[in-house]
Amino acid sequence: MDNALYVGLSRQMTLRRELDIVANNIANADTTGFKVESLMVETEPMAPAQTAGAPRPVKFVIDRSVGRDFGQGTLRQTGAPFDLGLDGNGFFKVRTPDGEQFTRDGRFRLDDAGRITTQEGMPILDEGGGEIVIEPKDGPVTIAPDGTVSQGRNLLGKIGVARFDTLSILEKVGDNRYRNTSNQQPVAASGVTMHQGMLEGSNVKPITEITRMIEVTRAYESMAKMMDANAELSRRSIERMGKLN
Amino acid sequence: MQALRTAATGMAAQQLNVEVISNNIANMNTVGFKKQRAEFQDLLYQTIERAGAQSSDQGTVVPTGVQVGGGVKTGSVYRITQQGALTSTGNKLDVAISGRGYFQVLMPGGETAYTRAGNFSPNDQGQLVTEDGYLVQPAITIPQDATDISISKSGQVQAVRTGQTTPEVIGNLELATFVNEAGLDAIGDNLLLESAASGAPTVGTPGTEGIGGLNQGYTEASNVDAVTEITALIVAQRAYEMNSKVITSADEMLRTTSNLRS
């Protein structure tokens, strides 16, 4: 009898989490290089909600994973010389205190030593894993679509772009960076172009997110109604069966 | 409910965004002003189910795991040091920099500030000062009887005195450059201060070693582009609105729960 309540509850729990994820997508709708996420739910494979022998197995729902849409965000013009928009499948490599991490956020700058760094001052790595240092005296910096950094005729290096065959091994760590959770080594990406003075916006589609939010709210409501009706049913049956005459 | 807090971070971020945009628009006609941009990053993620965890005794693993983000935060407010357009003013003491570099200004406290605003004037002693009366470094004194002043591309200031035909050199303007210009601290009044992020200034002659040249009779307009700012404002307002909708949704779900009887 209580199965319906518990199944309803398991659905409500996933819906709450789904709203958390939608909220995060919307909060980051304006975050450079952000990739939209969605919750993947499935029927709980382990414990059935109803014991064997029942006509149809009743199962709980569980949130098993978060799907990340790595689709291209739109590139917009900013004009800042160290803004780089990535077009294609790949990531910039960042040296962090926790090892090499990856990002699609191309809002770079120079630190006081002239290195190209992220907003937090972590150096961006070239193809071989080295830092790229600019000499401000040598004039404006040009970054070619293939990542070659040059000042006038001086070649300073080539910004590395890493590509993963399986994108699902990446885990978000915040600050627009991803961490590699497996032993799989990234390979040098090909066919990815960099656009100087442009940034890749987030690929959050506001309409989709708002629609999803409405869906979540309504599904939550209908689950509540179902549970309510179920409770009502048991209340009534107790009442009736309890009558003596 | 996490969604409530997440949406709140989104609203706070967009509010800051609007503040930065409004400052840009307010300074659209400020000489030498450089537009700023609020930069956002996603907050820490709460890992509920780790990717790579075993999902059954058959050795299957969770491919992506469940990670729920905590919203958005402001990473920095970045100054875009793009060249502004040069506007002709006809004033002999207006100097615009085309290229990299900052004028040095001696503050009343003795420290040096840096500015791109080259709308100078002489003070009562003939010294070249900024709009606020702070001395421009290196100090240049314009003779009382000067009839004409010329400032060359490389910063040489020459004056023609009454009764003379040949100009006389009265000083040289120098410019300071920084490795990381965006790291300078803005203190208002178009002035910037050196910081740990900017690196130490390198002072040099305008027009040499990658330093910009000077243009007499011009001021550098702000690099704020009205269209870009207004579009950014629209985006920020809509984003704010959407975040508030999330709060409404989360609230509605909580209400549904509290309305459950029995």
Report on the architecture of this protein.
The complex is a heterodimer of chains A (245) and B (262). Chain A has helices at residues 3-27, 206-242; strands spanning 37-48, 59-68, 75-77, 84-87, 91-96, 99-103, 109-110, 116-117, 141-143, 148-151, 154-158, 161-163, 170-174, 177-180, 187-188, 193-196, 198-200. In chain A, the strands form six sheets. Chain A has a six-stranded antiparallel sheet, with no helix packed on it. In chain A, a hairpin with a 2-residue loop joins β10 (148-151) and β11 (154-158). With 245 residues, chain A is α+β, with helices and mostly antiparallel strands. Helix content of chain A is 25%, strand content 31%. In chain A, α1 packs antiparallel against α2 (206-242). Chain A is built from two helices and 17 strands. Chain B has 262 residues and is α+β, with helices and mostly antiparallel strands. In chain B, the strands form seven sheets. In chain B, strands 7, 8, 11, 15, 16, 17 and 18 form a seven-stranded antiparallel sheet that branches. Chain B has a three-stranded antiparallel sheet with strand order 12-13-14, with no helix packed on it. In chain B, α1 (2-26) packs antiparallel against α2. The longest helix of chain B is centred in the last third of the chain and has 33 residues, at 226-258. The radius of gyration of chain B is 27 Å and the shape is elongated. Classes of the chains: A alpha+beta (245), B alpha+beta (262). At the A-B interface, α1, β1, β2, β7 and β13 of A face α1, β1, β2, β3 and β4 of B.
